[in-house]
Amino acid sequence: MMASSDRPRVAIVGATGLVGETFINVLEERGFPMSSLTLMASARSAGKRLTAMGDEHEVIEATPDAFEDIDIALFSAGGGSSKQLAPEAAKRGAVVVDNSSAWRMEPDVPLVVPEVNPDDALNHNGIIANPNCSTIQMVVALWPLHRENPIKRVIVDTYQSASGAGRLALEEMLEQSRGVLNGEQAQPSAFPHRIAFNAIPQIDVFEEDDYTKEEIKMVRETQKIMHAPEIAVSATCVRIPAAFAHSEAVHVEFTNPITPDEARDILAAAPGIVVTDNPSASAYPMAIDAQGRDEVFVGRIRRDTALDNGISMWVVSDNIRKGAATNTIQIAELLAKGAPAAAAR
Ligand code: L14
Fold it and tell me: Which of 33, 142, 196, 301 is the residue whose CA sits 20 to 30 A from 27?
């Protein structure tokens, strides 16, 4: 890694994707201190030209040797390339912040949400994982509550936007919606069924006990990020035809009594959260308002009638920004600040 006074040389792997494109925008918006930016993608996308920081960049193929002169590599090119290339980049001295699920549950890979466990980012061996989008927005809301009143159990149902499955999936949802309105037959490809005017209770593949991989990720990643394996978590993840931002109905059981007003005050004071909660004015978070924003929006905060010491809430955030690009770049900012453990590598 570079001397802490130097600005890092940054690479984006998967630069042509939805998250890759947002990496560029977020780096630019936040004025991320870097000395160079290299855009990489698979051989298929290499040679494309993209504008970043006001300059035209040619996208180069991500190969092991391409990481020779890179200090921080932001990966969002799918699990396969992360599995293969992240160790190659790390071997060449780069610190990888990886958006895929390939490394998240490895014991020596920190899984970081800066509002929750920033110190974990300093303790890496060259790879840091960015959590799943649905997990990130949930733990941003759970953590400040858990610190005041330990959480025993979380039951969450998600309403996830089409963009989570990538650019082609987003286009499929939009095209299919137009087609269905015109009386055409839908041809599902990115999703297991027609997504237009539907709700699909499957995200990713099915695994043990008939839970999907997305649901299992929410359980395990939440426990790892919060350092709380004792919290029981159950998730049902559902795809809906929203374009951007995931919404979640979160039901939380606490150890001790807590009132909705107490929960609202804790959340309103917590970093990265905006509370929008005025039922009489029909004011609550919605996907269309969260799109393009970096915060986690929380509302519908109320007593959960089915739990002891229970609170129910509605949590919304842009899955491509806080759920992916922004969180990854917040992690890179922790590194660029000259994190002691990172500098000692
Ligand atoms: O684990 O399809 O990072 O909405 C994020 C997007 C899992 C699937 C992850 C989706 C993926 C999810």
Answer: 142
Q: How confident is the model at residue 68, as a pLDDT?
A: 98
- Token output for 52: 């970043």
Phi, psi of 342 (to 5 degrees): -70, -40
pLDDT one-digit tens code per residue, 253-303: 999 999 999 999 999 999 999 999 999 999 999 999 999 999 999 999 999
**pLDDT value of position 4:** 46
Number of H helices, E strands in the chain: 9, 14
**Which residue from 236, 231, 103, 243 is spatially nearest to 163, judged by alpha carbons?**
243
Ligand 1 atom, smallest distance to 166 CA: 2
With beta carbons less than 8 A apart as the criterion, state whether 277 and 261 touch.
no
Beta-carbon neighbour count of residue 226 at 10 Å?
A: 20
* Confidence band, pLDDT 50/70/90 cuts, at residue 164: very high
**pTM recorded for the entire structure:** 0.96
With tokens 């936007």, the residue in question is: 161
**Which ligand 1 atom is the nearest neighbour of the CA of 239?**
4
Q: Give residue-wise pLDDT tens across range 327-337.
A: 999 999 999 88
Query: Is residue 23 a contact partner of residue 9, using CB atoms and an 8 Å limit?
Result: no
Q: Which amino acid is at 223?
A: Q
Residues in Cβ contact with 196 at an 8 Å cutoff, skipping those fewer than 6 apart: 173, 176, 177, 179, 180, 186, 241
- List the residue whose alpha carbon is closest to atom 4 of ligand 1: 164
Whether 176 contacts 186, CB under 8 Å: yes
CB-hemisphere CA count at 13 Å for 293?
18
User: Which secondary-structure segment (H or E) carries 213?
Assistant: helix 213-225
Dist. CA 165 → ligand 1 center (Å)? 6
Is 211 a residue whose pLDDT tops 70?
yes
Pairing mode, strands 49-52 and 55-58: antiparallel
